[in-house]
């Protein structure tokens, strides 16, 4: 089973940037489509972005398209989320996860403990 550990969260002012990382254990990281999800207080977990096994296909939620960028480095077993032009409504705990091959908005298998992102106005 793949173990995922997120990092890079923090407190940032609106308009600022953060880069999240997700380190994966095991040798099968490159076999999975991966995604980022977020959960704000009192809200359900929401899809943010996903990327195919080889990184050639990417999908974003409408709320982050044009501001966030997902990428991966399979040699380093790492998934990234570059977040620019952050808004207070981006405040949430961000999770990386293996996504279902048939529906990238669904988590399938491993997901991490999350990293807190707080955007002040």
Question: TL;DR?
Answer:
This protein has no helices and 11 strands. The chain has 121 residues and is mostly beta strands. The strands form 2 sheets. Strands 2, 4, 5, 6, 9, 10 and 11 form a 7-stranded mixed β-sheet that branches. It has a 4-stranded antiparallel β-sheet with strand order 1-3-8-7, with no helix packed on it.
Q: Report the radius of gyration as a whole number of Å.
A: 13 Å
Weakly predicted, low-confidence segments? none
The helix/strand order is EEEEEEEEEEE
Using the alpha-carbon principal axes, give the shape.
globular
> Mean of the pLDDT scores?
95
Per DSSP, the total helix count is 0
* Quaternary organisation: single chain
The count of β-strands is: 11
Biggest sheet layout: 7 strands, mixed
Proportion of residues in helical segments: under 10%
| Helix and strand composition category | mainly beta
Beta-strand percentage range? over 45%
How far the N terminus sits from the C terminus, by CA atoms, comes to 40 Å
Task: Summarize the helices and strands and which ones pair or pack.
Layout: E1 4-7, E2 10-13, E3 18-24, E4 34-39, E5 46-51, E6 58-60, E7 68-73, E8 78-83, E9 92-100, E10 103-111, E11 115-120
Parallel strand pairs: 2-11
Antiparallel strand pairs: 1-3, 3-8, 4-5, 4-9, 5-6, 7-8, 9-10, 9-11
Describe this structure as you would to a colleague.
The protein is built from no helices and eleven strands. The protein is 0% helix and 55% strand. The chain starts with a strand and ends with a strand. The strands form two sheets. Strands 2, 4, 5, 6, 9, 10 and 11 form a seven-stranded mixed sheet that branches. A four-stranded antiparallel sheet has the order 1-3-8-7, with no helix packed on it. The model has no long low-confidence stretch (mean pLDDT 95). With 121 residues, it is mainly beta. It is globular and about 40 Å long.
């Amino acid at each position: 089973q793949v173990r995922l550990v997120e990092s890079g969260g923090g407190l940032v002012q609106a308009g600022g940037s953060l880069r999240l990382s997700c380190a994966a254990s095991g040798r099968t990281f490159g076999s999975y489509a991966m995604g980022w999800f977020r959960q704000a207080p009192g809200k359900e977990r929401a899809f943010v972005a996903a990327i195919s096994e080889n990184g050639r296909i990417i999908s974003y939620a409408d709320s982050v398209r044009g501001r966030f960028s997902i990428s991966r480095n399979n040699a380093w077993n790492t998934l990234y989320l570059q977040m620019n032009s952050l808004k207070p409504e981006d405040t949430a705990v961000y999770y990386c996860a293996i996504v279902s091959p048939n529906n990238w908005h669904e988590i399938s298998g491993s997901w991490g403990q999350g990293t807190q992102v707080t955007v002040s106005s």
